[in-house]
Amino acid sequence: MAEQPPSTPFQLSRIYAKGWDAGMRCELRDTQTDGEATIDAVIAQAETLNPCSSEIDRAKWMQGFTEAVRRKFDGPQRRKKS
């Protein structure tokens, strides 16, 4: 099998976006308990959801997914009101 050419910056941005989208669609359960443990559990499952084959593409997808999950959990909608 021939090796794929490296992804362009544009392609990597689309891969990141697909990871972000998957992360935002992911369900976060037990957000009232240990938040970091919940996030870590969701991120651990993401490895099986990652559709990319090359190492660089997989890393970029995972970056998008991880940042979306953290944003979803720690975002402004989750901040306590004073």
Structure description:
- The protein is mainly alpha-helical and 82 residues long.
- It has one domain (9-75).
- It is 63% helix and 0% strand.
- The protein has helices spanning 9-25, 35-49, 55-74.
- Helix 1 crosses helix 3.
Features of the shown structure:
82 residues; mainly alpha
Report the portion of residues in β strands.
under 5%
| Biggest pleated sheet | none
Helix and strand string, N-terminal first? HHH
Low-confidence stretches: none
Q: How much helix, percentage-wise, in residues?
A: 55-70%
- Tally of helical segments: 3
| Nearest-integer average pLDDT | 82
Counting DSSP E segments of at least 2 residues, the number of strands comes to 0
What would you report as the Rg, rounded to the nearest angstrom?
15 Å
N/C terminus separation = 59 Å
Shape: elongated
Oligomeric state of the chains? single chain
Structural class call reads mainly alpha
Whole-number total of structural domains? 1
Write the layout of secondary structure elements.
Blueprint: H1 9-25, H2 35-49, H3 55-74
Quick description:
The protein contains three helices and no strands. It has 82 residues and is mainly alpha-helical. It has one domain.
